[in-house]
Amino acid sequence: MERLDQQSRMESREPLGNFASVEVSRFFVERPGGIRLEVYAQGRGDLLVMLPSLGRGAVDLEAIATPLAAAGFRVLRPEPRGNGASVGPLEGKTLHDWAADIAAVVESQNAGPAFIVGHAHGNWIARTLASDRPDLVRALLLLAGSAGKVPADHSGVPISDEIRAVIERCGDTSLSDAMRLQSLQQVFFAPGNDARAWLDGWNTRLLTLQTQAQKRTPVDDFFAGGRAPILNLQAEHDVIAPQRFARVLSDALGERVTNVTIRNAAHALLPEQPQAVVAALLDYLARFR
């Protein structure tokens, strides 16, 4: 494995504590069909795999991965196919294809079922994995995740075309920073939080292709998340996964789902309230130890 300089990768972020001893290493997982997945790894212990948001990469999860590794977990952050050094066919795919990549990462560890953390779009891949391969998933920890459905008595859709258009502007790096900042503040960050944290880190092509994969995948393919226990960690000011829909999963799936709300955060969540997210994750994970 290749060792990386943890301090240099963290210096642009507000630290959560002194975790200089938690080394970051990198390895690759090969799959048939020309698929090669880049994976960042930290820590020892129960396996925990983290999946980033739409059109974004593993670096988004670093600030919470480090304290989780320090708490006694083997934390893996695979780069999505099409981002970083992860490669493979991208056209005409569904969420099942990206979920199969994560299944290969879990199986590469020979460590039994894993805790799967999915942020935003990553929550759909996490639930697809749990539906396709329940044997590989110990529990789902969903961060700012849209359920994909709305209550039966609601006539709308979870994410409107208007909101989707704003999301696409956020990741369109051909637009001006000013326009993208306005879009980021509108859909990803709570009032008063600094949206500049997400001006960088976008992969516009990946965003487009993952959005297409969402649309090709029937919601019922992944909605239930297999049979895994679920932490549904919602953000107070989320307009993409709004609070009025926060109980869709628990109403449908019952006691498998634990709902928690993070204050002063929106859909970006991780750059807004990393300490609160880590505390909520560790509190939930404690029940499995």
UniProtKB/TrEMBL annotation:
Entry-linked Pfam families: Abhydrolase_6
Keyword line: Hydrolase
Record EC number: 3.5.1.-
Any one GO MF annotation of this record: hydrolase activity
Record flagged with keyword Protein biosynthesis: no
InterPro entries: AB_hydrolase_1, AB_hydrolase_fold, Carboxylesterase_BioH
Domain AB hydrolase-1: 66-280
Keyword Hydrolase on entry: yes
Gene3D superfamilies recorded: alpha/beta hydrolase (3.40.50.1820)
Protein name: Aminoacrylate hydrolase RutD
Natural source organism: Achromobacter pulmonis
